[in-house]
Amino acid sequence: MTDDIISRERVGAPGALRRRIAGLSDRALAWVFIIPTIVLLLAINIFPLIWTIRLSLTNYRANRANDELEWVGLRNYERILTNPDIWNSMQATAHFLFWTLVLQVLIGFSLAYLINKKFKGNDLWTTIIVLPMMLSPAVVGNFWTFLYQPQIGLFNYAVAFVTGIDPASFSMIGDVRLAPWSIIIVDTWMWTPFVMLICLAGLRSIPDYIYEAAEVDRASRWRQFWTITIPMVLPFLMLAVLFRGIENFKMFDLVVQLTGGGPGSITELTSINLKREAFEKWRTGYSSAYAIILFVTVFGLASIYVKALNRVKQR
Amino acid sequence: MRRAHLAATAALSITAAFSTSQAQAADLTLCWAAWDPANALVELSKDFEAQSGHSMKFEFVPWPNFADRMLNELNSGGKLCDLMIGDSQWIGGSAENGHYVKLNDFFDANDITMSDFIDATVTGYSEWPKNTPNYWALPAFGDVVGWTYRKDWFEKPELQAEFKEKYGRDLGVPATLAELKDIAEFFQGREVDGKTVYGASIYTERGSEGITMGAMNALYSYGFKYENPDKPYDMEGFVNSPGAVAGLEYYKALYDCCTPPGSSNGYMSEGIDAFKSGQVALQMNFAFTWPGFESDANVGGGKTGYFVNPAGPDGEQFAQLGGQGISVVSYSSQQEAALEYIKWFAQPEVQAKWWAMGGFSCLKSVTLDPAFPQSQPYAQTFLDSMAVVKDFWAEPSYATLLQATQRRFHDYVVAGNGTAKEALDGLVRDWTETFEDDGKL
Description:
The complex is a heterodimer of chains A (315) and B (441).
Chain A: H1 2-12, H2 15-22, H3 26-56, H4 75-81, H5 84-116, H6 122-130, H7 137-147, H8 154-163, H9 179-204, H10 208-216, H11 221-249, H12 253-258, H13 270-279, H14 284-314
Chain B: H1 2-24, E1 27-33, H2 36-52, E2 55-61, H3 63-75, E3 83-87, H4 91-96, H5 104-109, H6 119-126, E4 138-141, E5 145-150, H7 151-154, H8 157-167, H9 177-187, E6 190-192, E7 195-201, H10 210-222, H11 242-258, H12 268-276, E8 280-286, H13 290-294, E9 304-307, E10 319-320, E11 324-328, H14 335-345, H15 348-356, H16 364-367, H17 372-375, H18 379-386, E12 389-390, H19 398-413, H20 420-437
Parallel strand pairs in B: 1-2, 1-3, 7-8, 10-12
Antiparallel strand pairs in B: 3-11, 4-11, 5-8, 5-9, 6-7
């Protein structure tokens, strides 16, 4: 096959190039094709990573590029890991991550399970449910700030309608206890359809004959659900959790638009905190160390998770 | 033949003259925030274009992103802006990092005298280091935090009578911050003209600089000082003095008692909306917003009154300085033309027109004109406010200092975490760390 390609190449290639290509082994030819990609990866991924590690060991500030660069060793790392504000930020991120994943998986799977049943208007409902994830996060953040407005917000009125309390008596984004939930609600509203779609793909990939065999064996619906549906959808579900986990770990735009990290710092997720350190305070060395810590955390967690995912798939 | 030669020479001369004037005409870009005064400046600058032959372009960025966008531009040595109307706090960093052109020689050569401008604006917008004759900008737009109130509500006889009975004094412009809080409490949740209204709109914004610009008005008047006057960067006992603590407690009390529901993240535009929609009796905001109230259908036509930020418990009275100076960006390739613009802008007749169009001129010949106080309903309040201004740090690390303040103040005032003393003690620690990093401590 490769020989065919090379002989076809020979027809149009100039003499010198033709001779060179003809002299290349398959392995060398593979390298010729791979090298541009490797160079690109090195330039846009590996080099910046190494450069960031280097910067993290200095006191460099990008807004004072002419200042003398001082090597500070691991001092930036030490300051970050002993900074209670950063731990608060990590805690806020963990809270956001945990609850968005739990809610999105539960609601997303339930919706997929319902949508998977054949009923009239199935396609229309699928389209309607998927709409929120097609919107821009900045737009979603902006209009949810209006929905959460205590005096005119529909959300507050809906809560008031159900519970009977005064809609102006609570502020979702201004109250320390409610603000973390306000961002969880919006993210869940926006991204549950994504989880639903992945789960739907999983549900539709289960062959009907398995359920038919279970019916022959007189397995109850409940048993079919736990022994057929869940195990076969699990790899898809885990993939959805991985995608949403990575996305939500770096959540920025939606939360900035909704709460700006407030009230106080209660919704200041690590990505917002990092942006403030890097591009408002211009502590480039410090924020590089912060970025490396976050990178190691995400990389470590993702690696463990991917291993678990592979194990589930092999079962 | 001779005639042909003459014609060719004339044609060449005309072409040469035309191309010379083309070469001299520059395409200047002025960068500023996107707000009403910027629109007025666009109109004003048409005179400059007509006189100089240069053309002007404008790059306006909304306030919440203004600092981010423009400081990135300066820090990266960008050539987008030839002229920058940058915030007052940028002056230290922009001077020390070489973003702005030093203007002393230019001012001397063109008879532009800094003593012709309001003193506070020269210190606030032009000088670095502060209180030294090193100028990096021409005061362009004077601004200060002040208050507006619903004059028409204050004049209602039934409200006046009720207020007098409750507080033992007339319902009028408050002389102290304590009186201001009484008025705000009086209006909170009250029915006025068939609508529920609230006491006051104040700054609480978390993301950029809002809550700092607001709370500082209370803190200054309660005795807060940035540092020991005799020992620079010595902050213990000044930033967290008992007066400063009481000032921050006051601001939280005002937020808790008297703001409309959902006021946890409001700045200039939210204040404007709350006031224009008839939601609040009192509103804290920068003076630049005042012309807009006069022309508004709901609150214009004499319904709005203005007053200076009231005094604290010991009679000290200060207000937070806003406003900006205009600078020439050192990375610009058209510095000559940019300086020409500044020379034009500094002229008294241009400054007078600037004020007439809604720009807050800083030139004394405009503001000290006997007709000035009567020129607009808010003119006297603007002058009185400019006499009592204080500004935030203008150090190169101002952004770090500001972010620490935003976090500490919002944590205490809005989120209700800890005490005012803890917030200010924390702020001293944050600021000390920043100055240590800068090698100033």
